[in-house]
Write a structure and sequence with these properties.
Blueprint lengths: L1 E3 L2 H13 L4 E6 L5 H13 L2 E6 L19 H11 L3 E3 L3 H4 L18 H4 L3 H16 L3 E5 L3 H13 L5 E5 L19 H6 L1 H15 L5 H13 L4 E9 L15 E8 L2 E8 L2
Parallel strand pairs: 1-4, 2-3, 2-5, 3-4, 5-6
Antiparallel strand pairs: 7-8, 8-9
The structure holds adenosine monophosphate (AMP).
């Protein structure tokens, strides 16, 4: 596995691969790799001959008071995990390499970017769309692999790929969870032992809503209310949002139909966690 730090190297690698008719899979990450990332890399390796894993803590997707400075960074361990999961290259550019001095070009997905996480994190999806567009272009990706864990991000990126007529197909992989249900996240490392237990409220709530919906409850109001009650039982957690939305538009849905996204975000102490389910 090669480790690359410049766009020129990545582009050269992609050109050689495409000239040899090999397909290129891209797995964008911010590092601190875990089993969720590994599942994306394995999925990419299954369907593409070449796999580029990007490791880049993208400054433009963090708000001024967010955790950019303290986000975990562990390039050496990440490279080992990426290689074991089947990566062909790791692309880990410095900020100045990926955003040259004076960088003034951004990708803005109107409407969608202001919903769910975009509502509480202004500018977040502008940063995500910009970095993923740049990564897809530089890696000449045929497919990009993303986790359902960040379901709103998937909606924004699908819109972006369609609108910019990018070549990459978006592949969505299931949420990988700890044995007790907690969705795996690099940010789980911030949780204290007590918070780690409180954090289970998110996955527990998701399961409750799934059970209600399987039992025939399709009204958004009732599902959202039930989730609200589940969170209220753990008063140390502050809910950011509880929403039932159309997964393509992120607009509120009145009833749950197959494919509707039920998503939650909540603060556990100083850590913001998210979880979701696509209802059957
Ligand atoms: P991040 O490094 O947190 O920006 O995540 C990089 C990619 O990994 C995104 O597409 C995430 O949705 C995906 N991802 C993160 N956690 C998980 C998980 N628990 N299961 C599946 N995919 C995940």
């Amino acid at each position: 596995m090669k480790i690359m730090h410049t766009v020129a190297e990545l582009r050269q690698w992609a050109r050689v691969g495409h000239r040899a008719s090999q397909t290129i899979g891209l797995v964008p990450t911010m590092g601190a790799l875990h089993a969720g990332h590994a599942s994306l890399i394995r999925a990419a390796r299954k369907s593409c001959e070449l796999v580029a894993v990007s490791i880049f803590v993208n400054p433009t997707q963090f708000g001024p008071n967010e955790d950019y400075g303290r986000y975990p960074r562990s390039l050496e361990a990440d490279c080992k995990l990426a290689e074991a999961a089947g990566a062909t290259v790791v692309f880990a550019p410095a900020v100045e390499e990926f955003y040259p001095v004076g960088a003034a070009t951004f990708v803005e997905v109107d409407g969608l970017s202001g919903r769910l996480d975009g509502a509480s994190r202004p500018g977040h999806f502008r940063g995500v769309a910009t970095v993923v567009a740049k990564l897809m272009i530089a890696s000449e990706a045929d497919r990009g692999f993303f986790g359902q864990k960040d379901a709103a991000q998937v909606a924004v990126l699908r819109r972006m790929v369609t609108d910019l007529r990018l070549a990459a197909e978006i592949v969505v992989c299931p949420i990988v969870r700890e044995v007790d249900g907690l969705a795996i996240s690099s940010r789980n490392a911030y949780l204290s032992v007590a918070e780690r237990t409180q954090a289970l409220t998110l996955s527990r709530t998701i399961r409750q809503v799934e059970a209600l919906s399987v039992g025939g409850e399709r009204r958004a109001r009732v599902l959202v209310e039930a989730a609200g009650k589940s969170f209220a039982a753990e008063p140390t957690i502050r809910v950011d949002y509880i929403e039932l939305v159309n997964w393509a538009t992120l607009e509120p849905a009145e009833t749950a139909t197959p494919g509707t996204l039920f998503a939650v975000a909540a603060w556990v102490g100083a850590t913001r966690l998210i979880d979701n389910t696509i209802l059957a």
